Amino acid sequence: DAGVTQSPTHLIKTRGQQVTLRCSPKSGHDTVSWYQQALGQGPQFIFQYYEEEERQRGNFPDRFSGHQFPNYSSELNVNALLLGDSALYLCASRILIRGPLNTEAFFGQGTRLTVV
Amino acid sequence: SQQGEEDPQALSIQEGENATMNCSYKTSINNLQWYRQNSGRGLVHLILIRSNEREKHSGRLRVTLDTSKKSSSLLITASRAADTASYFCATDARIIQGAQKLVFGQGTRLTINP
């Protein structure tokens, strides 16, 4: 059973360019979230997708957008890249349970984005 | 902004010793999860403790949760060199219309010396 997979593992882009990162959730999981982790910091929540809709969003500009496909996989798009967007981008998946209980969130290995 | 704060920020101990890391948070939670991260790669899930639980064990890991103090601790017993990593706590806020997110602290950098 494959866990959460992300591609690519590393990426170098130039300021102003656009980038697309991809994530396949763990088998059986239906919700995907994206996180940005700057060097030496904890991950910061970008947004969460469920049923192909953005359900919650963190404090990130509109340059960050996403999509979830019918097979639950997801993409993160960042437009007009800035040097400050250089970070490790992590995807997490879990099963959404409506009610007071939550399930474990499992993370992929991340995509290291460098903007030059 | 980070909700949680891990303490200490860095910890260095000898192999075989126990390591204790603490996490404090600010708002009401459904559960709290601990993760390990090696060399800036992906996060490995260690343990989830629910808000109505006080203690949980998994192998050499022991996690406690005190919701009255809004704090949690992670104890690693009989540490090994392979435990060298950064450890993060992440809180799960109450679900609103199916929305979920984890809020992370800044992590504790643990170094196990041979």
Count the beta strands of chain A.
Answer: 11
Q: Approximately what portion of the residues of chain B adopt beta-strand conformation? A: over 45%
- CA distance, first residue to last residue of chain A: 37 Å
CATH structural class of chain B? Mainly Beta
What does the main sheet of chain A amount to? 7 strands, mixed
How many runs of DSSP E, i.e. beta strands of chain B?
11
The CATH homologous superfamily of chain B is called Immunoglobulins
CATH architecture of chain B: Sandwich
Our Rg estimate of chain B from Cα atoms comes to 14 Å
Radius of gyration of chain A: 14 Å
Defining key terms:
heterodimer, A: 116 residues, mainly beta, Immunoglobulin-like, 7-stranded mixed sheet, 4-stranded antiparallel sheet, 0% helix, globular, B: 114 residues, 6-stranded mixed sheet, 5-stranded antiparallel sheet
What's the layout of helices and strands?
The complex is a heterodimer of chains A (116) and B (114).
Chain A: E1 5-7, E2 10-13, E3 19-24, E4 31-37, E5 44-50, E6 53-57, E7 64-68, E8 74-78, E9 87-94, E10 106-107, E11 111-115
Chain B: E1 5-7, E2 10-14, E3 19-24, E4 31-37, E5 43-50, E6 55-58, E7 61-66, E8 71-76, E9 85-92, E10 102-104, E11 108-113
Parallel strand pairs in B: 2-11
Antiparallel strand pairs in B: 1-3, 3-8, 4-5, 4-9, 6-7, 7-8, 9-10, 9-11
What would you say this structure looks like, in words?
Chain A is an all-beta fold and 116 residues long. In chain A, 0% of the residues lie in helices and 49% in strands. In chain A, the strands form two sheets. In chain A, strands 2, 4, 5, 6, 9, 10 and 11 form a seven-stranded mixed sheet that branches. Chain A has a four-stranded antiparallel sheet with strand order 1-3-8-7, with no helix packed on it. In chain A, strand 4 and strand 5 (44-50) form a beta hairpin. The mean pLDDT of chain A is 93. The termini of chain B are far apart. In chain B, a hairpin with a 2-residue loop joins strand 6 (55-58) and strand 7 (61-66). Chain B has strands at 5-7, 10-14, 19-24, 31-37, 43-50, 55-58, 61-66, 71-76, 85-92, 102-104, 108-113. Chain B is mainly β. In chain B, strands 2, 4, 5, 9, 10 and 11 form a six-stranded mixed sheet that branches. A five-stranded antiparallel sheet of chain B has the order 1-3-8-7-6, with no helix packed on it. Chain B has no helices and eleven strands. The interface between A and B is medium-sized, with 36 and 31 residues.
